[in-house]
């Protein structure tokens, strides 16, 4: 039995425009997503903002009803058996919301322990255990409004684990955390996998997915565009090569012209201090340095380097494909 | 047993949050005093101590009602802003059991409203604090708080489905003052209003509180008040699943 199965999940939202002449527009946030996650697996759903990661996760945790398709968690239907599903899953999302700021961290956990049906006798030791796990011991009696972002995030993780769920959904849990906080949280996630939990993690940080996930699905514009182990995805662009050109103020038209060159797989621009870096993925057998520099004529160009593709390049190539 | 504990623990934490909100706190402290002052200044013209006690009790229940009608909506809106509404819905316990303690917590603030109004009337306007049946008075107040909590649950459930419905909380505040006879006897209202008054628990709660304070027979009113309160809770529980299914279908739970 798979821990999570999604079969051709679709979700459409209706949005309205206009005041007097109201028009309804349908937006397809998820367009036929299918995947299977085995028990004990850490599965990553990787994609840019607005790709459909959160919508997919919300359908799986019973907070959104799919427009079409079906999903099962621990062999329970997420629509028909919603209450049973909720008993057996934990949900953690990133950011500072989702915490009762006027209550202490301890009171937050005590309240949610009751809501998640943790037996009265088990609540205190369980909360102590989790405070220790997420590193909030000693600060638990302070009001949550005084917590840093990282502390609130760790409180979220503790809340999600209160009822010892078999399956954990982590929706961009490290978003906005400082590097130390994010690293600590990643190590907590790794320890949960070691303890046998099945985890579905959404993120748009490549290195995070690479470091943590057994398998990854890349989602773009509501569809899964690639699925496999991090090594499989890297292999997909292994045959290519990446040219990085430091530029100072590159225009959109120039990027478009470079993208149209024969042999170019993907183009992206990264901001690095005062400069920008034009990252061009090309087929290995083609040499496009002069052609690219030709398109940058008139612009100031800095360092030029060539390197092997990384998982991030694989991801960029996948999500920027038309 | 676990349901009772959930209601108790939920009430405790929700009430704790209400007490820790400085702006809500200030409103809850001052509002009843304004109601009491307005009502007592109007009714002072009548010169009768009994009329003043009548007005004082009416103003007290006005304050209780206001804290439920306006706060139930804003409480739901706060859950949306805080991002906790989805977590409450995603909890395995029935959503009505999660919401009921919150609305009961708001109704409990009404007990302060009642006490503050009566003390304000006593010390500022010199209205004697004589309660004919203290035990029945206490039971009437408790029954009114419980029924208000039940009505608040119905409101809260509708606020989950309709994001802007919290505005209706303010809308309901004043008509109920009138329709439930808080300040004006029901006998003075047109006949067609009566059926509306009868299905509203505040009508019977108000009547039970007055009857017990002024030496009448509050028990029938109290039974009706509690019965209607129970009816609201039952209706709230029944419609909760339907309302949540609809909200999950429309994807409005995460919207603020």
Give an overview of the whole structure:
The complex is a heterodimer of chains A (322) and B (256). Chain A has 322 residues and is of the alpha/beta class. Chain A has helices spanning 53-60, 82-88, 105-115, 120-134, 149-161, 179-194, 206-212, 230-236, 252-259, 289-295, 311-320; strands at residues 4-17, 23-37, 42-46, 68-73, 76-77, 89-93, 167-171, 198-203, 215-220, 223-228, 240-248, 264-272, 275-283, 300-307. Chain A is 34% helix and 33% strand. In chain A, helix 3 (105-115) packs parallel to helix 5 and helix 8 (230-236) packs across helix 11 (311-320). The longest helix of chain A is centred in the middle third of the chain and has 16 residues, at 179-194. The mean pLDDT of chain A is 86. Helix content of chain B is 79%, strand content 0%. Chain B contains 10 helices and no strands. Chain B has helices at 2-19, 22-43, 49-82, 85-90, 95-124, 134-161, 166-179, 194-198, 201-214, 219-250. Chain B is globular and about 60 Å long. Chains A and B meet through strand 1, helix 2 and helix 3 of A and helix 1, helix 4 and helix 10 of B.
How are the secondary structure elements laid out?
The complex is a heterodimer of chains A (322) and B (256).
Chain A: E1 4-17, E2 23-37, E3 42-46, H1 53-60, E4 68-73, E5 76-77, H2 82-88, E6 89-93, H3 105-115, H4 120-134, H5 149-161, E7 167-171, H6 179-194, E8 198-203, H7 206-212, E9 215-220, E10 223-228, H8 230-236, E11 240-248, H9 252-259, E12 264-272, E13 275-283, H10 289-295, E14 300-307, H11 311-320
Parallel strand pairs in A: 3-8, 3-9, 6-7, 7-8
Antiparallel strand pairs in A: 1-2, 1-4, 4-5, 9-10, 11-13, 11-14, 12-13
Helix pairs in contact in A: 3-4, 3-5, 4-5, 8-11
Chain B: H1 2-19, H2 22-43, H3 49-82, H4 85-90, H5 95-124, H6 134-161, H7 166-179, H8 194-198, H9 201-214, H10 219-250
């Amino acid at each position: 039995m798979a821990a999570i199965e999604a079969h051709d999940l679709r979700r459409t939202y209706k949005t309205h425009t206009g005041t007097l002449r109201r028009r309804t527009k349908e937006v397809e946030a998820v367009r036929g997503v299918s995947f299977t996650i085995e028990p004990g697996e850490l599965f990553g759903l990787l994609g840019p903002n607005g790709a459909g990661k959160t919508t997919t996760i919300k359908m799986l945790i019973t907070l959104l009803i799919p427009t079409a398709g079906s999903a099962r968690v621990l062999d329970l239907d997420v629509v028909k058996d919603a209450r049973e599903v909720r008993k057996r899953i934990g949900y953690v999302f990133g950011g500072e919301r989702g915490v009762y700021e006027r209550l202490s961290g301890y009171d937050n956990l005590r309240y949610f322990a009751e809501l998640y049906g943790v037996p009265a006798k088990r609540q205190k030791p369980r909360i102590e255990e989790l405070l220790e796990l997420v590193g909030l011991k000693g600060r638990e009696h302070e009001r949550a409004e005084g917590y840093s972002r990282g502390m609130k995030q760790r409180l979220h993780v503790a809340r999600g684990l209160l009822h010892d769920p078999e399956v954990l959904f982590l929706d961009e849990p490290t978003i906005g955390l400082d590097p130390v906080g994010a690293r600590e949280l990643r190590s907590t996630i790794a320890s949960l996998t070691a303890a046998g939990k099945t985890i579905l993690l959404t993120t748009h940080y490549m290195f995070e997915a690479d470091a943590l996930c057994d398998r990854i699905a890349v989602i773009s514009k509501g569809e899964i565009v690639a699925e496999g182990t991090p090594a499989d995805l890297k292999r997909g662009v292994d045959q290519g090569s990446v040219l990085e050109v430091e530029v100072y103020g590159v225009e959109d038209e120039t990027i478009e012209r470079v993208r149209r060159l024969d042999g170019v797989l993907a183009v992206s621009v990264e901001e690095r201090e005062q400069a920008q870096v034009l990252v061009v993925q090309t087929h290995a057998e083609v040499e496009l340095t002069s052609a690219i520099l030709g398109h940058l004529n008139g612009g100031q160009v800095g360092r030029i380097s060539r390197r092997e593709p990384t998982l991030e390049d694989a991801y960029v190539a996948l999500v920027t494909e038309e | 047993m676990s349901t009772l504990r959930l209601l108790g623990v939920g009430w405790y934490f929700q009430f704790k949050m209400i007490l820790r909100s400085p702006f809500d706190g200030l409103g809850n402290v001052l509002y009843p005093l304004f109601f009491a002052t307005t009502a007592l200044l109007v009714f002072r013209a009548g010169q009768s101590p009994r009329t003043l006690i009548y007005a004082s009790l009416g103003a007290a229940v006005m304050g209780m009602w206001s804290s439920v009608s306006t706060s139930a909506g804003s409480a739901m809106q706060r859950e949306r802003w805080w991002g906790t509404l989805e977590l409450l819905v995603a909890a395995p316990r029935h959503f009505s059991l999660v919401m009921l303690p919150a609305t009961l917590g708001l109704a409990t603030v009404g007990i302060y409203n009642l006490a503050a109004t009566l003390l304000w009337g006593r010390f500022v306007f010199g209205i004697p604090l004589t309660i004919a049946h203290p035990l029945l008075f206490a039971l009437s107040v408790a029954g009114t708080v419980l029924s208000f909590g039940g009505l608040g649950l119905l409101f809260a459930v509708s606020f989950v489905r309709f994001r802007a419905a919290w505005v209706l909380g303010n809308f309901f505040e004043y008509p109920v003052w009138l329709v439930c006879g808080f300040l004006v006897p029901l006998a003075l209202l047109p006949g067609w209003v009566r059926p509306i008054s009868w299905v509203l628990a505040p009508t019977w709660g108000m009547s039970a509180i007055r009857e017990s304070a002024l030496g009448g027979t509050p028990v029938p009113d109290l039974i009706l008040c509690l019965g209607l309160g129970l009816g609201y809770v039952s209706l709230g529980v029944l419609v909760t699943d339907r309302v949540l299914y609809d909200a999950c279908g429309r994807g409005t739970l995460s919207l603020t």
